[in-house]
Amino acid sequence: MLKPNRPGPFRRSVRNEKDEVVKTLTFERGEPVPVNKEQFEAIQRDINGALVLCHYETRVDDEGKPLKDADGKPIRVLRPDYKESEALFNELRGIETPVSEDADSEE
After folding, report:
1. What is the pLDDT of residues 67-98, one digit of tens each?
2. Number of domains in the chain
């Protein structure tokens, strides 16, 4: 998904082994774009720059039961995942992600 603070739309071309454009992906703010492996390879360097990874989260009540809309479908909210985006950005560039001091602590 395009980062909320970025002007849009953002486009990235997916190319084949002959360097021919086979598809152009268009990213708008707040709109997730599902991608396959080849498409991910084309956009991976844009993650944490123009793009952010995202996932859907199901809204739940105080007892942990899914909230439902008027049609009885679970209410899902799109959430950007900045932490995961930064980790992938660092991994692709060979940058070590700092480990939190709390990560190894025992409770």
Report:
1. 999 999 989 888 888 888 888 777 777 777 66
2. 1
